[in-house]
Amino acid sequence: MQEVINKLRKALIPIYGKGETEAIIRLIFYYVKGWKITDMLIHSREDLSPFVKEEIDKILQRLLKNEPIQYIVGEARFHGLDLKIRPGVLIPRPETEELVDIIIDDYKSKEDLKILDLCTGSGCIAIALSINLPFSEVTAVDISTEAIEMAKENSTLLKRKINLIKEDIFEWDPKENYDIIVSNPPYVMDKEALTMEKNVLDYEPHEALFVRNENPLVFYRRIADIGLNALKDNGRLYFEINPLLADELKEMMKTMGYSDVDLIRDSFGKLRFLRCTRI
Q1: 265 bridge partner residues
Q2: CA 187, CA 166: separation in Å to the nearest integer?
Q3: N or C: which end of the chain has fewer CB within 10 A?
Q4: Separation between Cα atoms, residue 60 and residue 129, nearest integer Å
Q5: What are the tens digits of pLDDT across the range 207-230?
C-alpha cells in the first residue's frame, strides 16, 4: 500500500501540489476500499490485491488528464456531507462551505425559516442549511435538468425535504416570501478563463461558471430584483462573489435599495461573500 501511495504522490504532486494530492489519495482509498484516514494508517503495511492496484492505476491515468477526482469517484465532500456528483454539475467548493457557515452563524438561534437557494447546482447549500437550521423550509432552483436531478438524489440520500424547482431565474418569480435568499451564481468572467486550471476548464459546466465580460453582474442584478419582492422585511440576501467585482457589486446593491451591505473575506483573505438586508 505504501508503494502505491508513493507512486501516486510522485505522479500527482507536480500537477496538484502536496496538499491537494494528499486529499486526492484519501478519496481514492475511500472509493476503492472504503477506508478513511485511520484505516489507511492501520493497513499501511498490507499488500493490495491486483484488482485494487488496477483500479487505482485507472484513476491515476484519468487524474493525469486533469479529470477532477470528484467526477471520477462520483462523490464530493461538502460541509461534512458526502454528496453525489456527476459531470454536468458544478463541484462544490470549500469557499462555499464558508458561505453556509456565515448564514448558520447569523441564524443559529432561529427556527421555522423560509430559505430560497438560487442556482442550486448539486443542492449543497440547500441541503447543508436544511440540516443546520432546524425546521427550515428550503426551496432550491436551477435551470439545469442535470443539476435538479443531482440535487434531488442528494436530498433523498441525506433524507432532507427540499422543494426543487427547475426554472430559469430570469423568467421565474417566486410566489412566496423568504427570510433568506442565497446564491452562488455564475460569476467568472470569460477573460479569466485563460488563468484557470485545466481540471476546471476542461471538465466542469461552463454555464455554471462563466458570465460575459461586458455584463458580469447579470445574475446578481436579477437575484437582487427577485429579493426586493420575495424577501420578507429585514430578510437577508447572501451571495458568493467574484473578488474582482466586489466593490462594483456592493455599490449596485446599495443603489437598488438594500441596507447593511457587507463584503466578507474568505479564509484566504479574498472578498468572497456579500450580505445585505431588505428593509
Answers
A1: 271
A2: 20
A3: C
A4: 34
A5: 999 999 999 999 999 999 999 999
The pTM is what?
0.93
Q: If we measure between CA atoms, which residue out of 49, 43, 48, 70 comes closest to residue 59?
A: 70
Angle (deg, nearest 10), helices 50-63 and 18-33: 140
Q: Quote the CA–CA distance of 209 and 188 in Å, as a whole number.
A: 6
pLDDT value, residue 91 = 96
Do the strands 114-118 and 178-183 form a parallel or antiparallel pair, or are they unpaired?
A: parallel
Residue with cell 481514492: 28
Q: What pLDDT sits at residue 147? A: 97
What is the sign of the dihedral through the CA atoms of 164, 143, 86 and 24? Answer: negative
For residue 55, give the C-alpha cell: 483500479
Residues with Cβ within 8 Å of 111's Cβ and at least 6 positions away in sequence, in order, are 133, 134, 135, 136
Dihedral sign of CA atoms 46, 47, 52, 54 in order? positive
Q: What is the pLDDT of residues 240-259, one digit of tens each?
A: 999 999 999 999 999 999 99
HEC sequence for the chain: CHHHHHHHHHHHHHHHCHHHHHHHHHHHHHHHHCCCHHHHHHCCCCCCCHHHHHHHHHHHHHHCCCCCHHHHHCEEEECCEEEECCCCCCCCCHHHHHHHHHHHHHHCCCCCCEEEEECCCCCHHHHHHHHHCCCCEEEEEECCHHHHHHHHHHHHHCCCCEEEEECCCCCCCCCCCEEEEEECCCCEEHHHHHHCCHHHHCCCCHHHCEECCCCCCHHHHHHHHHHHHHEEEEEEEEEECCHHHHHHHHHHHHHCCCEEEEEEECCCCCEEEEEEECC
